[in-house]
Design brief:
Strand order of the largest sheet: 3-4-6-5
Largest sheet: 4 strands, mixed
Number of helices: 27
Number of domains: 2
Structural class: alpha+beta
CATH topology of the largest domain: Collagenase (Catalytic Domain)
Radius of gyration: 25 Å
CATH class of the largest domain: Alpha Beta
CATH superfamily of the largest domain: Collagenase (Catalytic Domain)
Shape: globular
Distance between the termini: 41 Å
Length: about 675
């Protein structure tokens, strides 16, 4: 499916509604009568896999290896996966659960039909490239740049690419209303560094070869020359684009313009034709993220020959359509994407089919998923946990030693107004507008893509509905809604090893409790702290408090910058700062909440481990992971999250409770003197 063109902001700060409802229907609580809650933990005797530990390693030397070393040593990454670990393993489990739901669905169901269409390889081969070539013909028929601008913008709802991405999101001044957010686009490689950095020479070569193969498949008379022109154009785009760490700075990207002002600021692109292509009327207010880059891209558009623009568009239409075409196109695309991830084998077809169904009909699948797999008790227990974590966060704010009283009160107000959503939405989407045909994969994908994209755009100029979800219930993840000031925990993540109704309390607080604390803390990370209780981008800190916060953040960032993940690739603290702060603060908040839940009592010793030790072991095993080098290079370059190993060890080194729990002493490799530890929240 094509990428929906939207205002993509840092995942650590803002979450984009890519799956919000069209026509909502009342969602009754799932009828989970057949769900049986077993009386024992799903993992080990209390919720932690003690056999995963490498007890020959001192906890203070390498806590990741102490907690998970034997698992790391014996685990092989499957050939179709870039990594393996707690998150990815649970996602695989959920994927199997969803497949079971899909394959048992009534014959006439939409998701059953879409799944069947993807799995019918013989029909896909018979159709070949016919539907694609019909779309390519539309591009080839374009005769001027105004036409092209119109077409380029229309790709928000279909296969294709645009120099400028856009989509509705809450207004940074008035977060109760959706306005247009605009940001840089145009690249095929994951991020601008891939076009220039020597460590990505292999990936550039694979991408170039893929472009050439694709243009040959489209019947281009000189595919080599076409590939060279496309690559050169994208390299120019990359040179003009902002770095990823710049694009997550909420103050830098908060640039309001009217349509008229943008036309004056960034000439060279026919903005009237462009916005007409997406049926976007004149805007009195829009937020233009990377404004200087967008001005430069408009000039580049003006200077680039139409024939080059059309070649570039042709390739990207074919690239985004490739997963739904014949084997030759699928294999050609995989030959390139494997260079990014390091995998040696494409995922089984059924997994790709499940992904398509999830992405296209997510809440329709999600409704069936929670009925089958999410007990009501899990929802109520989780809501209790979130409530406890919010109390703990309030306690940390009140007891903060470096923050002034006015800033504390503003922080407490924001926390109090933070909405919590658990399991599934209150209302379900209506997908009746999607035409799913078991005999027409390409047409079904196009229908679903347009349906979801048009819904998203339909929110423009409307009040923000804070009850809408930006993730599906079956998603193994969670998010903080940024300008919407809400935290969301889908049903998918609310199972072992993150959450287990029968696990030891210390384990649940060390696992899902930290996830909850992480999402709460995003409201107060280096970017979240610039958003007030109402969700507006506003500085509610005193200058002195902001200075102290930034000082501690710099200390924290320097620790991460020292980590060389793979040869020549270090963590970028500016890109990962928000997630790193949320990891650290989440740990602190979850630990406080755990001890509050104990009610002043001493936790029992289980299998020779204290409650605090079980808390930290649960945390570490949530992040146990093993990843391929190419995948790690990609993550360090593009992802605001640090790799899993460093999400384990880096926050712990600053947490006094961890030192006390394991008796960490000077001379231990992870030891940091108290005066050098960061103190954030």
């Amino acid at each position: 499916m094509s990428r929906l063109k939207a205002a993509l902001l840092s995942a650590s700060t803002l979450a984009l509604l890519v799956a919000a409802p069209v026509r909502a229907e009342d969602a009754s609580a799932p009828a989970n009568a057949d769900i049986v809650v077993v009386g024992h933990p799903q993992i080990g005797t209390f919720g932690v896999d003690l056999t995963a530990r490498d007890t020959t390693v001192k906890p203070g030397d390498d806590f990741e290896r102490y907690a998970s070393g034997k698992w790391i040593d014996k685990t092989t990454i499957p050939s179709d996966r870039p990594n393996v670990g707690s998150f990815t393993n649970l996602r695989e489990d959920v994927q199997s659960q969803v497949q079971d739901l899909i394959t048992k669905a009534p014959a006439g169901s939409k998701y059953g039909a879409l799944y069947a269409a993807f799995m019918d390889e013989k029909q896909v081969e018979r159709v070949g490239l016919k539907p694609l070539m019909a779309d390519i013909a539309v591009v080839r028929a374009i005769t001027d740049k105004s036409q092209f601008a119109r077409y380029m913008a229309s790709t928000y709802a279909t296969f294709g690419i645009t120099l400028i991405n856009f989509g509705p999101y809450a207004d940074s001044d008035n977060p109760g209303m959706n306005v247009l957010w605009v940001n840089q686009g145009g690249l095929g490689l994951p991020e601008k560094d891939y076009y220039f950095n020597a460590q990505f020479a292999k990936q550039r070569a694979a991408y170039y070869a893929y472009i050439e193969r694709t243009m040959r498949a489209l019947g281009n008379p000189d595919p080599k020359a076409a590939a060279a022109q496309i690559m050169a154009f994208e390299t120019e785009i990359a040179a003009l684009s902002w770095d990823a760490d710049q694009s997550r700075n909420i103050e830098r990207i908060n640039n309001p313009y009217s349509t008229a002002a943008l036309k004056a600021y960034a000439p060279g692109l026919d903005w009237d034709a462009f916005f007409a292509g997406a049926n976007v009327p004149d805007q009195q207010r829009m937020i233009v993220n990377e404004n200087t880059a967008i001005r430069a891209l408009a000039k580049l558009y003006e200077a680039t020959p139409l024939d080059v623009l059309k070649l570039w568009e042709e390739f990207h239409v074919a690239d985004q359509a490739a997963p739904y075409l014949n084997k030759a196109m699928v294999d050609s695309r995989f030959a390139y994407t494997s260079s990014i991830s390091g995998v040696t084998q494409n995922r089984p077809r059924w997994k790709r089919a499940v992904d398509l169904v999830n992405n296209s009909l997510g809440e329709l699948v999600g409704q069936a998923y929670v009925e089958k797999h999410f007990p009501p008790l899990a929802k109520s227990r989780m809501e209790d946990l979130v409530g406890n974590l919010k109390v703990a966060m309030a306690g940390r704010i009140k007891s903060n030693s470096w923050m002034s009283e006015p800033t504390k009160q503003a922080a407490l107000e924001k926390l109090a107004k933070m909405d919590v959503m658990v399991g599934y939405p209150d209302k379900w989407r209506d997908y009746s507008g999607v035409k799913a045909d078991a005999h027409d994969l390409y047409g079904s994908v196009v229908s679903a893509t347009r349906f979801n994209a048009d819904y998203q755009m339909s929110q423009l100029g409307k009040p923000v509905d804070r009850k809408l979800w930006g993730m599906f219930p079956q998603t193994v993840n969670a998010y903080n809604g940024g300008l919407e000031n809400k935290i969301v925990f889908p049903a998918g993540i609310l199972q072992a090893p993150f959450f287990d109704l029968n696990a030891d309390m210390a384990v649940n607080y060390g696992a899902i409790g930290v996830v909850i604390g992480h999402e709460i803390s995003h409201g107060f990370d280096d970017q979240g702290r610039k958003i007030d209780a109402a969700g507006a981008v506003k500085d509610w800190w005193t200058p002195q408090d902001a200075e102290r916060f930034n000082k501690e953040a710099k200390i924290f960032g320097a620790q991460y910058a020292a980590f060389e993940v793979v040869p020549g690739a270090h963590i970028n603290p500016d890109l990962t700062m928000g997630e790193n702060i949320a990891d650290f603060a989440g740990l602190n908040v979850a630990y406080d909440a755990y001890h509050h839940a104990l009610g002043g009592k001493e936790a029992p010793v289980i299998d020779g481990l204290t409650g605090d030790q079980r808390f930290f072991l649960a945390y570490a095993q949530v992040w146990k992971s093993k990843a391929r080098e190419d995948s790690l290079r990609n993550q360090v370059t593009t992802d605001p999250h640090s790799p899993a190993r460093y999400r384990t060890i880096a926050p712990l080194r600053n947490l006094e409770a961890w030192y006390q729990a394991w008796g960490i002493q000077p001379g231990d490799k992870m030891y940091i003197p108290p005066e050098q530890r960061a103190k954030i929240w």
